Each structure stands twice: as C-alpha cells, then as structure tokens.
C-alpha cells in the first residue's frame, strides 16, 4: 500500500544511515517523497547516498549539538525550502547495571536520545508553524513504557520522548501533529551489537508473535502516521511490539 498524499512531501529523517532510519528513508522514497537524512556517521551517509540516488541529500550532524542541528536545518532549507515531515529517529543504546552506570554514560544517553530530539523538533516546528502544517514523528520505545533492567538511562530517555510527544501534540495543534512510535525488539545493527544470536532467540520467545520486528515494519507505521489516513492521530504514542507490552 502507498499513500498518494506523500508524493512530493519534504521529509527529514535523523539517524537515517542505518536501521529503522534507513528503512524509513527507503519507504518514503517509494512513496515519492523528497528525503534528506541526517546522521553522525559520515561513512554511513556516503554509502547510503551512493546506494540510494533518489535521496535529496545527506547531512552529517551530531543531533546533541545545538550549532550542528541549526546548521543542518539551514542546509535543509537550501536543499528543499523547508520540510513537511520530520522523523526524529536518531538514538543510541547501551547496557549497564544502574549502580555501575557512570555520569558520562547517563549524560550521553540523555543528550542524544532526548535533547537531540528536542533540538531537531524545535527547528522543524518553527518552520512548520510558519506554513501552518506538518507532521512530527518521534522514535521512542516500549522501554519508555515500562521498566527494563540494565537500561535505566535508555528507558528514562525514551519515557521522556513519550511525554514530549504528548505535550507537543497539544501545544502545536491544530497545525502540527506529533506522535511517538514505540518499537519493541527490532533487528537493527544497534541490537545486533548488544545481543548475541542466542539472546535474540530468547527475546523472540517472550513476544506473542514469536519473532522480532523488521525495520521495514516500523517504517510502514511511520508512512501511515505521516499520511492523511492518520490525520486525526496526534499527542499520543503507539507501540509496535508484536503484543509484548500486553503481557
């Protein structure tokens, strides 16, 4: 299924060089959208741009740095004259017992996952309010909905994103819709770096659908939420987790 109203829409995806972000960029290209990706990984950006010539551009930026985010959105203005859809997806993850977690580990997680979204959303929302239209979608996590051991910093950052999406959905209405998407276990390079195949198999057994998600399935949800089919959905969060959080 494709969404006719997404053709020609100007889409910006942070963390677009891998995982869910890359799958989402490819999905919006199929929808006929104009897509710019932002990522901190310069080599990853080059590879994605070479393999996906339909992309309008790729911008190297650290989303946790205000100056870099500001410059990235100025570049987006040059490339596309603004944006209609932001998918604030860039994020990091790591495992650590709370009592062994350093201040630096905590701060980095919050800076990238929560403050990084704040900075990007603010730049996008300023532009969208001027045109009185726009959609902001945020990659949160089911980890933000309930506790998971060894992820105190990650969980807190994702819980903050859920609250941020609900708050901004109220503040920016009626012109801008804001929704947080909460994936469960998705097989991405980030997960593969943290989990062994045996651990992934064990996680899959905990999910009612008995498997982990593919990034393309999350991308499909982003496409729906960005479309007019979802025009009455805002100020909320939507899990995509194979039924895991229903347990």
What does this structure look like?
With about 250 residues, the protein is α/β, with parallel strands linked by helices. It has one domain: Rossmann fold (3-Layer(aba) Sandwich), CATH 3.40.50.720. The protein contains eight helices and seven strands. A seven-stranded parallel β-sheet has the order 3-2-1-4-5-6-7, with helices on both faces. β1, α1 (about 20-30) and β2 (about 35-40) form a beta-alpha-beta unit.
Major sheet? 7 strands, parallel
The CATH topology corresponds to Rossmann fold
Q: Total number of β-strand segments? A: 7
Number of individual domains: 1
How would you name the oligomeric state of the polypeptide chains in this document?
single chain
- What proportion of the residues is helical, as a percent range? 40-55%
Q: List the helices and strands in order.
A: EHEHEHEHEHEHHHE
Query: Which CATH class applies here?
Result: Alpha Beta
Strand content: 15-25%
Q: What is the 3D shape?
A: globular
Backbone structural class = alpha/beta
Annotated CATH architecture: 3-Layer(aba) Sandwich
Give unreliable regions as ranges: none
């Amino acid at each position: 299924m494709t969404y006719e109203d997404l053709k020609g829409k100007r889409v910006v995806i942070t963390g677009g060089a891998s995982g869910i972000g890359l799958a989402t960029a490819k999905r919006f290209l199929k929808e006929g959208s104009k897509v710019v990706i932002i990522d901190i990984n310069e080599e990853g950006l080059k590879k994605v741009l070479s393999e996906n010539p339909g992309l309008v551009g790729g911008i190297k930026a650290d989303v946790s740095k205000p100056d870099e985010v500001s410059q990235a959105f100025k570049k987006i203005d040059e490339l596309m004259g603004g944006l209609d859809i932001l998918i604030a997806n860039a994020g990091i993850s790591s495992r650590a017992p709370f009592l062994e977690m350093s201040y630096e580990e905590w701060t980095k997680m919050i800076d990238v996952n929560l403050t990084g979204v704040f900075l990007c959303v603010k730049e996008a929302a300023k532009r969208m309010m001027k045109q009185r239209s726009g959609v902001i979608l945020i990659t949160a996590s089911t980890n933000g909905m309930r506790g998971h051991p060894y992820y105190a910093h990650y969980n807190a950052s994702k819980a903050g994103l859920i609250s941020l999406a609900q708050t901004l959905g109220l503040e920016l209405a009626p012109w801008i819709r804001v929704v947080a998407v909460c994936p469960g276990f998705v097989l991405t390079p980030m997960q593969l770096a943290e989990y062994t195949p045996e651990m992934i198999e064990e996680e899959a057994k905990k999910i009612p659908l008995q498997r982990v998600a593919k990034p393309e399935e999350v991308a499909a949800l982003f496409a729906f939420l960005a479309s007019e089919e979802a025009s009455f959905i805002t100020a909320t969060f939507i899990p995509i987790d194979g039924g895991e959080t229903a347990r």
